[in-house]
Specification:
This protein is mostly helical. The protein folds into 3 domains: 214 residues, Clc chloride channel, CATH 1.10.3080; 229 residues, Clc chloride channel; 56 residues, CBS-domain (Roll), CATH 3.10.580. 63% of the residues lie in helices and 3% in strands. The protein is built from 26 helices and 5 strands. The strands form 2 sheets. A 3-stranded mixed beta sheet has the order 3-4-5. Strands 1-2 form a two-stranded antiparallel sheet. A hairpin with a 7-residue loop joins strand 4 and strand 5. The longest helix is centred in the N-terminal third of the chain and has 36 residues. The chain is globular.
């Protein structure tokens, strides 16, 4: 029945449309005449009429095509790829300048230390100051705010041009300083701001860009673009953005995210080839693990241990990060001092971290001279650094030399690196600059996996024997597993496995990576919230978090069990006294606005702070003085107009009858216009005329007294 009904309805609609077209097209004599749109009629006259009509039709066609989603997504991907490539180029230049300053002063260790410490301190201080002045909303990751915005909460100034500029410049300076900070979270925020600004710009071409639901869909696609162009990982970027920002994901946004993220990642890698950084489009951290026998089944317990340990480590990282922030806020003296000296805290933290990573100092035990990118390249290396625990049996080449120390082996260096970077990253992510926490955690996880891999290689120096074949253990594979597991534990995501595959360009370790990531998520989710949910709780953003493990009984709690029933509300016709009573009787941050106390129809809500601001604006001393001045001036004008009328009346009286010294008759001219008897007054005008007579009497007396 349903199929036949829709078919008949479609046939009827086509026939009816054809009939209407024939009626509109028939002219005089049954000859159809061509119709032009009403907006083209003014262009049909003149010598250049065809050209004008053609130009207008082309303009309308282009405007209609600009409204297509794929045009918007191409523009979004292109802009984000350009921004990502330009920022990477600026960051690499800043890091190279630091190396150049450090290497050029090799004759004096004190000058080297001053250059090594001063450079990042200046950059971080500038980033914090610039962000604080231009847009304080750009501080931090940006993913917690995007999670809140995609839930339907409006956060002011988070998607504006000022915030975009502050985020881009502040993030470039922060990452160029060499601090253990990430860029993945800020790129999600930058892509979302870019999408919002593009929507406002393209709204000039049509009103469909002002649709709120459509803007939310584009923001969801922009989150995928941010991760995709940051790591050149479009598939992992889409999945990561869905896991991190969305609770319920609309499948219709799936193709938008993939399309924009793929285009952005493609342009990002093409720009690298164009700049001669790469020979062709390859993975960012390309690995060369063997494909015929990547790992043995007997190694799976080691991968599972990495996953479980990474789960505990991720929960500890989130806990440590939150405790640092809470400690700074609870200490009233420190908090008050740092509120006055806003740039002192980031400068002190940068000074401490850069001092500990100084290569001739303590940094020689933790590869302090390597950047995050160089560190990942070395950790993913598929050669074994140590055999039987001896560091001198492997020839270190190039940047691998940073992991070698003559007085200790590679295990000590890796352990010191993990422990120091762990608390340094937790502390550095609390600096009030645009920064993320994904990349530092990713590097720490890779170092932990490398430590387990080197231990396995030292335990089985000749590899694990299987069917008379000997395959050596590849520690780089363990580093890949550790990076995915720890980053997945901190963010509570499984898509980090896909990001790792796209970053390394190999999928050979898919089974160990998935096992480790799932185990790490299981442990971390039972202990702590994700890093982004923890920041949401710290900032007290309006967001309803997910229930953790062991809280399933709370699913049976109803809204009526937790809601406040005695609600103070504001009506449309409430007086100032009622409004003042509501503000004094409740401490709620938001007040409901209803139509009236009888209907109780909810019209919306208004924040308590906004009500206070409006009242202070309307009832300020300046406003009261202005109102009193206006009232006095109105009374003066009214008195002057009354006096002029009375003066005219008294003038008429003096000209009509001359005044006598004995008795004055000032009322005669005014009273002559009033009928003498009540019978002469019409019934409808009696009251009006008596009022005029009394007014004339009053005005005439006033005029007479004034002249006298």
């Amino acid at each position: 029945m349903y199929g036949r009904y829709t078919q008949d309805l479609g046939t009827f609609a086509r026939d009816e449309a054809a009939r209407l077209r024939l009626q509109q097209g028939d002219g005089e004599g049954g000859v159809p005449r061509p119709r032009r749109p009403s907006e083209l009629l003014e262009y049909t006259q003149g010598r250049c009429a065809p050209c004008r009509v053609c130009a207008l039709q082309c303009q309308q066609f282009l405007i209609s095509k600009v409204g297509e989603d794929w045009v918007f997504l191409i523009l979004l991907g292109l802009v984000m790829a350009l921004v990502s490539w330009a920022m990477d180029f600026a960051i690499a230049t800043c890091l190279q300048a630091q190396k150049w300053m450090y290497g050029g002063l090799d004759t004096n260790v004190l000058l080297q230390y001053l250059a090594w410490v001063t450079y990042p301190t200046v950059l971080i201080t500038f980033s914090a100051g610039f962000t604080q002045i231009l847009a304080p909303q750009a501080v931090g990751s940006g993913i917690p705010e995007m999670k809140t915005i995609l839930r339907g909460v409006v956060l002011k100034e988070y998607l504006t041009l000022k915030t975009f500029v502050a985020k881009v410049i502040g993030l470039t300076c922060a990452l160029g300083s060499g601090m253990p900070l990430g860029k993945e979270g800020p790129f999600v925020h930058i892509a979302s701001m870019c999408a919002a600004l593009l929507s406002r710009f393209l709204s000039l071409f049509g009103g469909f860009y002002e649709n709120e639901a459509r803007n939310i869909e584009m923001l969801a696609a922009a989150c995928a673009v941010g991760v995709g162009c940051c790591f050149a990982a479009p598939i992992g970027g889409v999945l990561f953005s869905i896991e991190v920002t969305s609770t319920f994901f609309a499948v219709r946004n799936y193709w938008r995210g993939f399309f924009a993220a793929t285009f952005s990642a493609f342009i990002f890698r093409v720009l690298a080839v164009w700049n001669k950084d790469e020979e062709t489009i390859t993975a960012l951290f390309k690995t060369r693990f063997r494909l015929d026998f990547p790992f043995d089944l007997q190694e799976l317990p080691a991968f599972a241990v990495i996953g479980i340990a990474s789960g505990f480590g991720g929960a500890l990282f989130v806990y440590l990060n939150r405790k640092i922030v809470q400690f700074m806020r609870r200490q009233k003296t420190i908090n008050r001092f740092l509120m006055k000296k806003r740039l002192l805290f980031p400068a002190l933290v940068t000074l401490l971290i850069s001092t500990l990573t100084f290569p001739p100092g303590f940094g020689q035990f933790m590869a302090g001279q390597l950047t995050q990118k160089d560190t990942l390249v070395t950790l993913f290396d598929n050669q074994t650094w140590a055999k039987q625990g001896l560091s001198d049996e492997f020839e270190y080449l190039g940047i691998l030399e940073a992991w070698r120390h003559p007085r200790s082996n590679v295990f000590v260096t890796l352990v010191v690196f993990i422990l120091m970077k762990f608390w340094m990253s937790a502390l550095a992510t609390t600096i009030p600059v645009p920064c993320g926490g994904f990349m530092p955690v990713f590097v720490i996880g890779a170092a932990f996996g490398r430590l387990v891999g080197e231990s396995m290689a030292a335990w089985f120096p000749d590899g694990i024997h299987t069917d008379s074949n000997t395959y050596r253990i590849v520690p780089g594979g363990y580093a890949v597993v550790g990076a995915a597991a720890l980053s997945g534990a901190v963010t509570h995501t499984v898509s980090t496995a896909v990001i790792v595959f796209e970053l390394t360009g190999q999928i050979s370790h898919i089974l160990p990576v998935m096992i480790a990531v799932i185990l790490a998520n299981a442990v971390a989710q039972s202990l702590q919230p994700s890093l982004y949910d923890s920041i949401i709780r710290i900032k007290k953003l309006p967001y309803l978090p997910e229930l953790g493990w062991g809280h399933h009984e709370k699913y049976n709690v109803r809204v009526e069990d937790i809601m406040v029933r005695d609600i103070r509300y504001i009506t449309l016709n409430c007086k100032f006294r009622d409004l003042q009573h509501v503000l004094h009787s409740t401490k709620m941050k938001s007040l409901p606005l209803v139509e009236s106390a009888e209907s109780m129809i909810l019209l919306g809500s208004i924040e308590r702070a906004q009500v206070g601001a409006l009242l202070s604006n309307q009832l300020s001393p300046e406003r009261r003085l202005q109102f009193l001045r206006q009232k006095v001036m109105a009374e003066e004008r009214h008195r002057l107009s009354e006096a002029s009328i009375c003066f005219q009346i008294s003038t008429e009286a003096s000209s009509g009858a001359p005044t006598r010294s004995g008795s004055r008759k000032p009322l005669k001219p005014a009273l002559k216009r009033v009928p003498s008897t009540q019978s002469e007054i019409p019934a409808g005008d009696a009251a009006d005329n008596s009022g005029i007579a009394l007014k004339s009497l009053f005005c005439t007396n006033t005029a007479a007294d004034t002249t006298e």
